[in-house]
Design goal:
The structure holds two protein chains of two kinds. Chain A is of the alpha/beta class. Helix content of chain A is 34%, strand content 17%. In chain A, the strands form three sheets. In chain A, strands 1-8-7-6-5-4-3-2 form an eight-stranded parallel beta sheet. In chain A, helix 9 packs parallel to helix 10. Chain B has two domains: 163 residues, 3-Layer(aba) Sandwich (Rossmann fold); 115 residues, 3-Layer(aba) Sandwich (Rossmann fold), CATH 3.40.50. Chain B has a seven-stranded mixed beta sheet, with helices on both faces. Chain B has a five-stranded mixed beta sheet with strand order 9-11-10-13-14, sandwiched between helices. The radius of gyration of chain B is 18 Å and the shape is globular. The chains are: A alpha/beta, B alpha/beta. At the A-B interface, helix 11 and helix 12 of A face helix 3 and helix 4 of B. Bound molecules: magnesium ion.
Chain lengths: 453, 295
């Protein structure tokens, strides 16, 4: 999965809301140029939990290693064509930082050969270094060759990248993006948009880690719905993490409460509670219950027994004009209670009720087709007086688009998802509805998620 | 004579002045006495159709956005058909929903065993967060309804179908959780819930020196009043139109266990049957004569 790393070129870093940026990315890129603004003092002044990835484009690299270390740098990059490369690498390592070697567009990759096993990262320049706003030079063949030299090295690409060029460097690990983000009116919105896929991947990793650590839980549906929850919490819902009872908020009810790991991960990542809480999932005395509980910040209502959530969501939509989102499963379409709520929502014309069904075609003991055939759900909901949209529930663009709704009828979004999405041995298998991966399986799953492109 | 359900219906209408109060039923508005409210406040009345599970879930959602929902159905259907919904969406979530079950006990009469809910108190009093109220007559049902609206949190109230004797007046004080001692005495103490209280009073008056407690709130139970009776009276007799197992008598026994002899009158592990409610009371052992025998 390619990660986005914003590069704060020559903008005023003090005006950036790093707390917000931290939700989407893990690093910030800082270019240090001769007589530039990012002196060690200036870098130190950037207050953030992000790792500072510093590219020293100055002559006296060696003298500056310790000052930038003291300024909070985690990674130091310098040009592979400079002198005394080995000494510099040693010095950076000794200071406890990671080392990256930068390689310019015109430089042949073979110059990396003597150092490739001694460094952590390669910074592949896709423009000529110096100033922002240049056109992207296609360096995809370089990425391939570096991977062959050392598959463990992290490959970063910097220069001229925009949303449309991302696919050209999809084999790299990190895309460093400056102008495309910060020349926009709302840079954080751009970071968000570029990072959503990565965030969803992180949510999936949380799901695996939580369930593995708890030795119990429900990975199948949660992995399948990671894209829906990511879109909801990072790109759609209105809420205030500092005022969970804010009366203008959108309500969200998760009816099939067993996939709560996807929800918990998002709640933690947007700041309703600390991410360290995720480690306590299903543990005695800890906050995160095996099924959603009303005691958890950001959770509206406890849920778990199937078929009930839509009733609660309908009640909320009936009693307020706020938008109410309800997530249901396909398995729980078996419950009579669900259809009682479906009829009520149509009777009272609850246009503020948007329901998303995880149509993953599995349930606890088998495929939905075998346990209880659901036939044509779209037709059923249309007949019951709802509007229906059918989407690929693992496609972020389709999800976002489907959530835009203003109508007089309740809306059902049938999100066709792959259960276990992102983990090859879980995908499409009902056996992973409620089974925890053991340590070995979890490790394999996390590796796959890391490498997914 | 007036019915407890009319006390509820009249009080609900009075509560309508509060714009947060909403009423829901499952196709039973005439029977559960919601018609007056429905007529006066049509936008705050919701009929969910014959769907008790949905009734509870929707009420829970309404309470979550600040409404004070009263839901009502027959005891056989609520809690009879929606226990999980009550447990999760109301009790566990600690939502401010008021559940009012009418047509409870063998008092239902002719409709027979199917509709004579005899297990509701047992089901409701074991739920954390739930308050359980069983008023003895029209006036008390009226006051209990108003009191429940003021109390924040899940409440269950049980009333019967029939018109029954009036025991309390408009001036009788009522407070959820505070039992009423209506007769003084030390020879024995009768603790009654619901309209059978009338027979308890008559039995006590005829025998003399018998204490009578109206235990209209089964949860939270009035520990002080009951422990005092256990200390001062030779024995306690409980009476209720409900299964002996798990009902009010059980709640009292749990409290005074080992401290006092308790004789429990009620339905003894069987279902009711069709018939005239007065005759059924005799048949199932819930009259003045049965109480006197137990004394
Ligand atoms: Mg499913």
């Amino acid at each position: 999965m390619i990660k986005i790393e914003p590069s704060i070129l020559d903008i005023d870093a003090s005006k950036l809301n790093f707390k917000k940026i931290e939700k989407y990315v893990e690093r910030v890129h800082i270019d240090v140029v001769p007589k530039g603004k990012y002196t060690p003092t200036a870098v130190k002044r950037i207050r953030t939990e992000l790792e500072k990835d510093v590219h020293l484009m100055i002559l006296d690299v060696e003298k500056n290693i310790i000052p930038y270390k003291n300024a909070g740098a985690s990674i130091i990059n310098f040009n592979v064509m400079s002198e005394n490369v080995i000494e510099k690498i040693k010095k950076i390592r000794k200071a406890g930082m990671k080392v990256g070697l930068a390689i310019n567009p015109e430089t042949h990759v073979n110059v990396l050969l003597p150092f490739i096993k001694k460094i952590d990262e390669v910074l592949v320049m896709s423009v000529h270094p110096g100033k922002g706003g240049q056109r992207f030079i296609n360096i995809s063949s370089k990425i391939k060759k570096i991977k062959q030299m050392n598959p463990d090295v992290l490959i970063k690409v910097d220069g001229g990248i925009k949303e449309s060029t991302l696919r050209k460097i999809k084999n790299a690990d990190v895309a460093i993006i400056g102008s495309y983000i910060f020349n926009k009116k709302k840079p954080i919105e751009v970071i968000k948009k570029l990072s959503l896929k990565h965030v969803a991947n992180n949510v999936r990793k949380d799901i695996i880690k939580m369930i593995n650590k708890a030795s119990s839980g429900h990975p199948g549906g949660a992995l399948g719905m990671a894209d829906v929850f990511t879109t909801l919490y990072f790109d759609e819902l209105k809420y205030d993490v500092n005022n969970v009872k804010w009366d203008k908020r959108d309500y969200l009810v998760l009816s099939n409460g067993h996939i709560c790991t996807a929800l918990y991960s998002c709640l933690a990542r947007v700041g309703f509670f600390s991410r360290s809480e995720l480690e306590g999932f299903r543990k005695t005395g800890r906050m995160l219950e095996g099924h959603p509980s009303v005691h958890i910040p950001g959770i509206e209502n406890g849920s778990g027994p199937l078929g009930i959530g839509l009733s609660q969501a309908a009640g909320m939509a009936l009693g307020s004009s706020n938008r109410v989102f309800c997530v249901v499963s396909d398995g729980e379409q078996d419950e009579g209670n669900n259809w009682e709520a479906v009829m009520l929502a149509a009777k009272y014309k609850l246009g503020n009720l948007i329901t998303i069904m995880d149509r993953n075609k599995i349930q606890l003991s088998g495929n939905t087709k075998e346990v209880m055939e659901l036939k044509n759900l779209k037709k059923k909901y249309l007949t019951f007086g709802w509007n229906v949209r059918s989407i690929n529930g693992n496609n972020l663009k389709q999800i976002k688009k489907s959530l835009q709704y203003k109508g007089k009828k309740p809306l059902m979004i049938i999100a066709n998802t792959t259960p276990g999405k992102g983990v090859s041995f879980m995908e499409g298998k009902y056996e992973w509805h409620g089974k925890a991966p053991n340590d070995k399986e979890a490790m394999k799953a996390l590796e796959e998620l890391d490498e997914s492109r | 004579m007036k019915a407890g359900r009319d006390g509820f219906g009249d009080a609900l209408l009075a509560l309508g002045k509060n714009k947060q109060v909403v009423a829901l039923t499952a196709d039973l508005s005439p029977s559960v006495r919601m018609d007056a409210f429905k007529k006066k406040y049509p936008t705050r009345f919701f009929d969910v159709g014959v769907a008790e599970q949905n009734l509870i879930g929707v009420a829970s959602g309404l309470s979550h956005v600040g409404k004070i929902p009263f839901t009502s159905s027959f005891g056989a259907f609520m809690p009879g058909m929606c226990y999980q919904q009550i447990r999760t969406t109301v009790a566990y979530n600690n939502n401010n929903v008021k559940l009012v079950a009418t047509h409870c006990g063998i008092d239902v009469g002719e409709d027979g065993a199917m509709h004579q809910m005899l297990e509701d108190i047992a089901l409701m009093r074991v739920l954390p967060n739930m308050t359980v109220v069983v008023p003895c007559d029209y006036n008390q049902a009226y006051k209990a309804t108003l009191a429940m609206a003021k109390l924040k949190g899940p409440c269950y109230m049980r009333v019967g179908r029939s018109k029954t004797m009036e025991i309390t007046s408009k001036r009788t004080p009522f407070k959820i959780g505070r039992a009423q001692t209506l007769r003084k005495g030390k020879k024995a103490c009768i603790i009654a819930s619901g309209p059978v209280l009338y027979d308890a009073l008559k039995a006590a008056d005829e025998v003399g020196n018998v204490r009578v407690i109206n235990l209209h709130t089964i949860k939270p139970i009035d520990t002080r009043t009951i422990l005092k009776a256990a200390k001062e009276c030779k024995k306690i007799i409980t009476i209720e139109d409900h299964q002996i197992a798990g009902g009010m008598g059980s709640a009292v026994s749990e409290l005074v266990s080992g401290k006092c002899e308790v004789v429990r009158l009620g339905i003894d592990d069987e279902f009711g049957e069709s018939g005239n409610s007065q005759e059924l009371m005799k048949k199932f052992g819930l009259t003045k004569e049965h109480i006197k025998k137990a004394l």
